[in-house]
Design brief:
With 203 residues, the chain is of the alpha+beta class. The chain has a single domain, classed as 60s Ribosomal Protein L30, Chain: A. Helices cover 23% and strands 32% of the residues. The chain contains 3 helices and 11 strands. The protein has a 6-stranded mixed beta sheet with strand order 1-4-7-6-8-9, covered by helices on one side. Strands 2-3-5-10-11 form a 5-stranded mixed beta sheet, with no helix packed on it. The termini are far apart.
């Protein structure tokens, strides 16, 4: 009888040793909450999937299952993805800096790059992020027939990124083509397609 009990206890101990460790909460953390701040046009398809269309001067910051689109000519889009927190941000600015004596709309205006990155920097700080966490893509800055707005916008973006020691992950810039970007906020994937040619004083 004693031998039987000993064998049973030994078998039980062996079974316990072979069992996988208990699943902890740390192995499967809860999903991060979705949120959205944007000046763009929010819409939903018949299945309820949301998207945001950004125009020149619009911006976006958030997290969640959302598609962001923008059509770009001379304007430049700063597309940012923070993998650590699964956060995304986009601004589509039309001019590098705000002219003296021109005041922005309440809540910030994304028409001017210096305003837009200041606004985005505040959002990053609130989310315990830093510019060093950002994976950056630059899109747009096409050349116009009768101006150099695209070149100025592009130079500003590249100089700004260099000042923060951010190496752009992707640059789809310059040329004469209109571009459409599609940015998936859920995973940071970015797709860029080309449209027609840029004329004078467009986008």
């Amino acid at each position: 009888m004693t031998s039987f009990i000993t064998d049973l206890l030994s078998a039980d101990a062996s079974t316990r040793a072979a069992m996988p460790p208990p699943i902890s909460r740390e192995m499967f953390p809860p999903p991060l909450p979705s949120f959205l701040e944007s000046s763009g046009v929010v819409s939903a398809d018949p299945l309820g999937r949301r998207s945001v269309m950004l125009r020149p001067g619009d911006w976006l910051f958030g997290r969640g299952d959302l598609r962001v689109t923008a059509m770009l000519g001379a304007s430049v889009a700063l597309v940012m993805w923070i993998p650590r927190y699964r956060l995304g941000a986009v601004c589509c600015y039309a001019h590098p800096q705000r002219p003296a004596g021109v005041y922005g709309l309440e809540g910030g205006s994304g028409l001017y790059a210096d305003d837009a990155v200041r606004w985005l920097g505040e959002r990053l700080l609130r989310s315990a992020c830093d510019w060093s966490d950002v994976s950056l893509s630059l899109v747009g800055g096409a050349h116009q027939q009768d101006g150099c707005a695209g070149e100025r916008n592009l130079r500003w973006a590249q100089s700004w990124a260099s000042s923060l020691q951010i190496e752009p992950h992707q640059q789809e810039v310059g040329g004469r083509d209109l571009r459409k970007l599609s940015f998936q906020l859920v995973d940071g994937s970015l797709t860029i397609t080309h449209g027609g040619r840029l004329g004078s004083a467009e986008m």
